[in-house]
Design goal:
With 496 residues, the chain is mainly α. The chain is built from 24 helices and 2 strands. α4 packs across α9, α5 runs antiparallel to α6 and α5 packs parallel to α7.
Length: 496
């Protein structure tokens, strides 16, 4: 490799260039190669962390320190000097947590973390060349913003608010003492989640480090259900099967990416020749295929991160209906539920799950007014400053309201027979997938002009339909509909 090529690689990444030859051979950008290498190494380290550094023979302090050091090494390997932003944000928010009053610690942490994230995102977009892929150091900052704000709200709940003021989840997750610096660093920078997340609950993470995670999770099942008992007495379950299953999913996603995703580029949706020559139905079909083809890269990253946590022994949620241990506590995606979703809400509930839980815990459950719009706005701000993000989340507001109205007014008419219910599910599945495609297209196109070009080519049809549904449909089902539903229900009861 000559000097010119080396210079080109140095320009493309501020992270480590050791794997530049691999990048050239496989045709994948160096920053992505570095990311995958760290995650693969993280998977191997996770198994060692569970077996060789198990909590029975090592103190929590040792496990905290090792998790932190490896995590810090990963972000420096991937982002080089840009990693300093991660350390600045974490240390600044710890200073706020320690020095500020518990009455306002949640507000100060939210303002500081989201503000710093916005500054970094603005610099990434408008100061640095977008082609410098490693400037996407905002990824770890996004996860850390979730963690520091979640913990700040939980400290506020545990040390400031009265128990009777809290909701059940808030009471269960409340933190009653401020963490040490080592615990705070480990929670935020541990190698399991520092690159791609997900955000996990502080108390769950501390239980995992201290070796109490599995026992506490399985004991809760024993306490809640009399049918499941003795789970807290059995040896710690092995995560190997769960990890293998998730790695197989990752392999399929990777295969899908190289075969399908590259064959259906998103930008072709706004190609002038394609728009002018293709019919509306053809353009609609291509948009649907290209958006669905773009999902596997997210499935891959989130499923691999989940597998790494499981390999370390973290992620038990309880037991399933068959009495088997479930390793989905911090899963970030449910692929089957997404691909078969028959409502926009169902799609959202199974996509980027931990981020949805974060938005719910710090915004939706706490906002006194306009909870849904404020939650969508916070989500857009958290994602970044590209205009496409705001098109997506603002468009989602009327569509969500319209979907609720349509479901309230029409769903009951299709519950009278299994055949009608199947027809309803097929229609709502197609409508959901097409609507999601329409909503997320700006998220993938990013800029204003391509977004408007796409929406013009689609005649703004989903916007129009949503607004008409909100205006024309009653907010509640009519009494006549309710009477029909009640009559039908009574008839069914008599027939049974």
């Amino acid at each position: 490799m000559d000097k010119k090529e080396n210079t080109d690689i140095a320009f493309k990444t501020t992270g480590c260039t050791w794997l530049s030859s691999v990048s050239d051979q496989v045709g994948v950008p160096l920053d992505q190669v570095n990311f995958i290498a760290c995650q693969i190494l993280g998977l191997a380290v996770a198994f060692w962390f569970r077996l060789g550094l198990n909590p029975q023979h090592n103190t929590p302090e040792v496990r905290h320190a090792v998790a932190t050091i490896i995590g810090a090494s990963f972000i420096m390997f991937c982002f080089g000097w840009y990693a300093i932003h991660v350390f600045i944000l974490v240390l600044a928010c710890y200073g706020i947590l320690i020095k500020s009053s518990v009455n306002g610690v949640h507000r100060y942490t939210m303002i500081a973390s989201v503000g710093y994230l916005i500054v970094c995102q603005v610099s990434r977009v408008f100061i640095f060349d977008y082609g410098i892929l490693s400037t996407d150091f905002s990824g770890p900052l996004m996860i850390i913003t979730q963690k520091v704000t979640t913990l700040a709200f939980q400290v506020h709940d545990g040390m400031c608010r009265k128990q009777e003021e809290l909701k059940d989840d808030q009471r269960r997750l409340a933190v009653h003492s401020k963490p040490s610096l080592l615990e705070y660093l480990s929670y935020n920078i541990n190698f399991l989640s520092v690159l791609v997340g997900p955000c996990s609950i502080y108390k769950d993470y501390i239980e995992f480090i201290e070796g109490q995670h599995v026992q506490h999770r399985l004991k809760r099942v024993k306490d809640i259900s009399s049918q499941q008992n003795g789970w807290d007495k059995v040896p710690e379950p092995s995560p190997v099967r769960a990890v293998i299953n998730k790695l197989l999913v990752c392999a399929c996603c990777l295969l899908w990416f190289f075969i399908i995703t590259k064959a259906f580029p998103i930008t072709y949706n706004v190609d002038p020749q394609f728009i002018s020559e293709a019919s509306f139905i053809t353009r609609l079909a291509y948009a649907l295929i290209s958006v669905q083809a773009a999902r596997p890269k997210f499935y891959f990253a989130w499923t691999l991160a989940d597998a790494i946590h499981n390999a370390a022994g973290y992620g038990v949620s309880g037991v399933n209906e068959r009495g088997e241990v479930s390793w989905d506590l911090i899963s970030n995606v449910r692929i089957w539920e997404i691909e078969t979703a028959t409502s926009f809400k169902s799609f959202i509930d199974n996509w980027n799950i931990q981020t949805s839980l974060w938005l719910k815990s710090v915004c939706y459950d706490r906002a006194p007014y306009y909870r849904m719009p404020l939650t969508f706005v916070l989500s857009a701000i958290w994602h970044g400053v590209y205009p496409g993000y705001y098109f997506t989340f603002i468009t989602a507001i009327p569509i969500t309201l319209a979907a609720r109205s349509v479901r309230r007014n029409f769903r009951e008419f299709f519950l009278s027979s299994p055949l009608l219910k199947i027809c309803y599910d097929v229609v709502t599945w197609a409508a959901t997938q097409l609507t999601v495609c329409y909503i997320v297209m700006p998220f993938l196109l990013l800029a204003v002009e391509p977004t408007l070009q796409y929406y013009r080519s689609m005649y703004f049809h989903v916007h129009v339909i949503s607004i008409l549904a909100m205006i024309l449909l009653p907010s509640k089902p009519s009494c006549f509909k309710s009477e029909i539903h009640a009559l039908h229900f009574n008839n069914n009861v008599k027939e049974d």
